[in-house]
Write a structure and sequence with these properties.
The complex is a heterodimer of chains A (221) and B (210). Chain A has 221 residues and is mostly helical. Chain A contains 9 helices and no strands. Chain A has helices spanning 3-19, 23-41, 48-66, 69-77, 80-86, 89-118, 127-152, 158-186, 194-219. By secondary structure, chain B is of the alpha/beta class. The chains are: A mainly alpha (221), B alpha/beta (210). The interface between A and B is medium-sized, with 28 and 26 residues.
Chain lengths: 221, 210
């Protein structure tokens, strides 16, 4: 990551603040998804384990509604060529990744805060474990979403292809993150969650390495 | 003086089973204007994209040499200026914002004197702070020239450079092409007679279909 990637990130941030391409979609999806869960649960008492699972369901589908914008918006507006003419593939991927990491953290922090406020059963007993899994889970989600967005950007049915392709790729991350959230809700120690944490960290490292290796081929037709 | 040269070796491009061109060889090793011509669908835009490193050739390669040393593909963008009708800049930003963003992302210094000179040359100085979405298609085409020239490229690739331009815009383009061709390589892909009259040498793509 260098100053060129940071400049690309700033461009995306400024562009996003002017066009609201992703922020509006993400905000609406968060509100709708949490409202639907609240209405369907009603006065029923749900188990803390179920709230942990639903928490990641909301995160997954919210990510699917907005994170593809990194590359799809460039392709739809026809600005991909301009980017290809000013930056190397590594710069482009790094810039887009920084933007998606910031977006994922902002989005998931809002979801976590709303969830804690609205669901009494969502009580975190081991906050440090939750925070660690939240950080590594978000990074993994951002890396995968960015490279999948780059892959589907040139395809026809982007809207359908994005969640379909994301699901199998994100499945190991989501399963491990759900498990870690359940551990955090149950107050299980860091030591006992070592295996799941290792899965999430390894997932991030593998996806990051594979993404940088793949991106050159995806970016150049 | 910077010595830039470009050589295409046995270039072949196919899209699926459709052959665009085959066994294309040329060498541009001194400053001047070089043309690429051919009927619609002959692969003019495809060839300029391959030259600019945007797409890959199916076979063969294009070698860019700077002072005798081959340029790495990831550094090509700092030496090439590219203009085409299908190039789109960011409409939510003004001309000046676009140019500053591109200088930052390219990792080059934003040269205000150069940009002001080009803005004046293409008659856009007064509108430099207006959003691109408020521009006409001809004005957008002029911004693309500033985008292509702001970093002093050694290779200027122009695909249909005068499309959407009025007579005044075309004159500015021809002046710039002649000026750039004194020190740099300028490639024009076009079918326009006036565009091709500027060229020292022309590659006719219909000869490379077999």
């Amino acid at each position: 990551m260098n100053s060129k990637s940071y400049s690309l990130f700033l461009k995306d941030l400024k562009s996003e603040l002017r066009t609201r391409y992703a922020i509006n979609a993400l905000a609406m999806f968060i509100i709708v998804a949490i409202s639907v869960i609240m209405f369907s649960v009603g006065q029923e008492k749900i188990s803390p384990g179920l709230t942990g699972g639903l928490f990641w369901v909301v995160i997954f589908f919210t990510a699917m509604s907005g994170l593809s914008r990194a590359f799809v918006s460039e392709e739809e507006r026809g600005t991909t060529l301009a980017l290809q003419l000013v930056a190397s593939p590594t710069t482009v991927f790094s810039g887009k990744l920084i933007f998606n990491i910031i977006l994922v953290f902002a989005m998931n922090t809002v979801i976590a805060v709303l969830y804690s406020a609205l669901f009494n059963e969502f009580i975190i007993r081991n906050f440090l474990l939750f925070l660690t899994s939240f950080v590594f889970g978000n990074i993994g989600l951002a890396i995968s979403s960015t490279i999948i967005a780059a892959i589907i950007a040139k395809a026809g049915a982007k809207g359908t292809l994005y969640p379909v392709l994301s699901f199998p790729i994100l499945l190991p991350l989501i399963l491990a993150s759900v498990q870690l959230t359940l551990f955090a809700i149950d107050g299980i120690s860091f030591e006992s969650a070592k295996f799941e944490l290792a899965i999430v960290v390894s997932y991030d490292v593998i996806m990051l390495t594979a993404s940088y290796m793949l991106f050159d081929f995806i970016w150049k037709e | 003086m910077i010595n830039y040269s470009l050589e295409a070796q046995q270039l072949n491009k196919s899209f699926g089973r459709r052959l665009i061109f085959n066994d294309l060889n040329f060498k541009f090793d001194k400053p001047g204007v070089f043309g690429i011509s051919g009927p619609n669908g002959s692969g003019k835009s495809t060839l300029v994209k391959i030259i600019a490193g945007i797409i890959s050739a199916s076979k063969g390669k294009v070698i860019h040499l700077l002072n005798g040393k081959a340029l790495a593909e990831e550094n090509l963008h700092n030496h090439i200026g590219f203009v085409s009708p299908y190039l789109v800049l960011y409409e939510e930003f003004s001309t000046l914002e676009n140019l500053k963003i591109f200088a930052d992302v390219r990792g080059t210094e934003f040269n205000k004197d150069r940009v002001d000179y080009l803005l004046n040359k293409f008659l856009l100085f007064k509108r430099k702070d207006d959003l691109l979405k408020t521009y006409s298609s001809g004005m957008k085409q002029r911004v693309k020239f500033i985008f292509a020239l702001m970093h002093f490229p050694q290779l200027l690739v122009l695909d249909e450079p005068t499309s959407n331009l009025d007579e005044e815009g075309k004159s500015s383009v021809y002046e710039i092409v002649k000026e750039e061709a004194k020190t740099n390589i300028v490639i024009i892909a076009s079918n326009e007679r006036n565009d091709l009259e500027l060229c020292n040498e022309i590659v006719l793509l219909e000869k490379y279909k077999n």
